[in-house]
Amino acid sequence: MQLTSLNRWTASGLHLAISAAIATAVVTVMLALWYPQPYFTAMGGGTLIMILIGVDVGIGPLITLIVFDPKKKHLRFDLTVIALLQLAALAYGGGVMFEARPVYNVFVVDRFETVAANQVDAESLATVKTGEFRTLPLAGPRIIAARQPDSPDPKSEIVLSALRGGPDLANLPELYVPYAQFRRDAARSARPLAELAKRQPGDAATIRSFVAGTGRTEDAVGFLPMKARNRDMAVVVDTGSGDVLGILPVYPW
Predict the structure, then answer these.
(1) By percentage, how much of the chain surpasses pLDDT 90?
(2) Bond from prior residue into 252 cis (ω within 30 degrees of 0)
(3) Residues 202, 215: contact at Cβ < 8 Å?
(4) Is the pLDDT of residue 24 over 70?
(5) How far is CA 142 from the centre of its chain?
(6) Alpha helices in 71-203 (DSSP H)
(7) Whole-prediction pTM value?
(8) Backbone angles phi, psi at 113, to 5 degrees
(9) What is the CA radius of gyration of the chain?
């Protein structure tokens, strides 16, 4: 296709179509790998994607609409610069999404905390030399647990750091352990789903539907609060085994 055969509106529309196709592919990968539901909602993925799409899909075609003139001598150069700037913006936005992706859903004492990659304490991560927690997951968050510090001293460095606003237990990879080690504790801490339905009567139908999907009776499952960056939810566990059955998009407090 010759540029001289296009007017600014056609060129801008073509640019918009190409940008939308690229953005759709990128967002699809992000949702499949980094932000599977319900973590997408819990971690505020919608806001991040709207910014990404607004910058990538909106601004590029708008600039093309402004600068496009088939009679311009350096039109190809101008369009190349626009495309490169747009790709740079897409790469930057993708990098932000990557750094903000949820990597762990950590059971701590009596709740779960969803931790993003940029919330993991770097110094603590550097101390993990071997094992499964020395690198962050790339394909969606993992359900794990965090043990208590070895030192019972309430003046220990880790406890004092948390009290001063530093990293909490859920953000310290040196304390991470497989969830299986604490699933019985989770089962003991789980609260009845009837309590959740009473707190959030508008979500009672959602809760009943979820329980029916598990194939269990309501008294065989319970919930634990899940704290997240954008929206707190409820993790449903088997009250016998502690196995995680899923996450309800219901406010747990």
Answers:
(1) 51
(2) no
(3) no
(4) yes
(5) 11
(6) 75-99, 122-126, 157-163, 183-189, 193-199
(7) 0.81
(8) -130, 125
(9) 24
50-75: burial string, b at 16+ Cβ within 10 Å, e else: eebbebbbeebbebbeebbeeeeeeb
129: which 2 tokens? 């030399």
**Based on the number of CB atoms within 10 Å of its own CB, is 155 exposed (0-12), middle (13-18) or buried (19 or more)?**
exposed
Give Cα 237 distance to the centre of its chain. 21
Pairing of strands 221-227, 191-192: antiparallel
Per-chain mean pLDDT for the chain: 86
pLDDT of 63-111, one tens digit each?
888 888 777 878 888 888 888 888 888 888 888 889 999 999 999 999 9
Q: Answer for the pair 224, 244: CB distance below 8 angstroms, yes or no.
A: no
Q: Residue ranges of the domains in the chain? A: 3-99, 102-181, 187-253
What does the block give as tokens for 78? 């101008």
**Measured between alpha carbons, how far is 224 from 237 in angstroms, rounded to an integer?**
8
DSSP 130: S
